[in-house]
Design goal:
Radius of gyration: 18 Å
Distance between the termini: 21 Å
Number of strands: 8
Helix content: 25-40%
Low-confidence stretches: none
Number of helices: 7
Mean pLDDT: 86
Strand content: 15-25%
Amino acid sequence: MAASMPCRDCATGTLHEGTPKGRVETVHGLPTYIAEPPSGTPKGIIVIIPDAFGWELPNSRVLADSYAEKGDFRVYLPDFMDGHWIAHDLLKSLNQVTDPAPSYFAAVTKIFPGFRSFAAFAPFVFFNRLSVSKPRVYQFFHALRSAQASSLPIGVAGFCWGGKFVTLLCADGEKAADGRSLVDAGFTAHPSMLDVPADIEAVTLPLS
């Protein structure tokens, strides 16, 4: 049984009004938003794997800042989608499509936003299918573990689209070159594209 994108929460929301405080650099080959802890000495690393709206969404960057500030972590938010995320301004169209229609006229007005939403989601699904995106995600974690985090714990947080990868990483089926797990713990909220119960039953690392 697969859990794909059956509910409106996968594709709706609002833009956060906060201002990101971090910086952007290339980390292990990927453009990455970086938030540093106030102490300057992180007690661990957190990698955020975002939802379909990608690494440039202000919500995700502000969240990275919060993790860094409140948890004393270095936080990475890479572009795991190779530039193929859903435009942030599409949130309005998606809300129009998924909001209940109180009348026939209101239902008709959903047609154009519906076509616009489909036109955005189809390329996203194609370019970010598991066979394409999983190697990109795993390559980043392999490089992170061997190059930067040999002595630091790695946590991973994934949202919607990113939740699938958190679950797979916490199954611990693929090890780093030194035999260690690629991550130490994971968190996911509203994960999509899961194979249930197989993906969940395979988890061996701490996952919330």
